[in-house]
Amino acid sequence: MASDVPVVPDPAERPKGEPAARGLRHERIEAENRELRAMADHLFATQEEERRMVARGLHNGAGQSITAIRMAAHAALHETDPDRRREELEDILAQADAALHQVRTICARMRPPPLDALGLEAALRWHAEAACVAAGCALELRIDPLPRRPGPSVEQTGFRIVQEALANALRHARADRVSLALRVEDDRCVLEVVDNGRGFDPLVTVGPGLVAMRERARSAGGRMDIASAPGRGTRVLASLPCR
């Protein structure tokens, strides 16, 4: 009978390192939970900001243009002078062109057209040049042609990581010089963003944006590393499968 009874080891005889190991596992789980909560908060805030941006763009831009078109069309319906009617119709065309441009601008912010039409290389070049020109920042580009076009998820992930890294460099780190590189190493798409901004301590500052970038890379089968120090700029390196 005694052989069927499970033996519970005496706590005093347990390895001394066992409580410490449990403590380390608990700390690791807590850290991962904090990262997940931070990432969820960041994604929610990003979605809300995108919704606000779309709402502002439609209301202040396209919405006002459509209102002006409606008023001009109503006036043209009751205009008897042919020359005056022609002027009002030309004004309607101009307002329609403006509304179309505003809608296209909103769509480009949500998902850049070059990413679908021309691929990752063109989309990265297009976005980096536009962002750095707007911020008055010097840009160095080293974008190698890829041997084949990656899948949509890899392209989307790579673009969003670079987009976030550039936003951090220009908005938060206040860099005035940025370099962006895309190359292939061992059948992996390697993306590198380096800035000369204020830098930070990655062991102390783990913002939700950085967590989201790392999780994006992981979900696409890749990884992302960050090297930075206060006053020494930041280097973001992402490696994604070229599939």
TrEMBL record:
Q: Where is this region: Disordered?
A: 1-26
Composition-biased stretches, type Basic and acidic residues, lie in 11-26
Q: Gene3D superfamilies in the record, alphabetically? A: 1.20.5.1930, Histidine kinase-like ATPase, C-terminal domain (3.30.565.10)
State if Hydrolase is listed as a keyword.
Answer: no
Q: Name one GO cellular component term.
A: membrane
Q: Name one GO molecular function term.
A: phosphorelay sensor kinase activity
Q: Name one Pfam family in it.
A: HisKA_3
Q: In this protein, which residues make up the domain named Histidine kinase?
A: 160-243
Q: Which PROSITE patterns match?
A: HIS_KIN
Q: Which UniProt keywords apply?
A: Kinase, Transferase, Two-component regulatory system
**Protein name, entry field:** Sensor histidine kinase
Which organism was this protein described from?
A: Luteimonas granuli
Q: What is the lineage of its organism?
A: Bacteria, Pseudomonadati, Pseudomonadota, Gammaproteobacteria, Lysobacterales
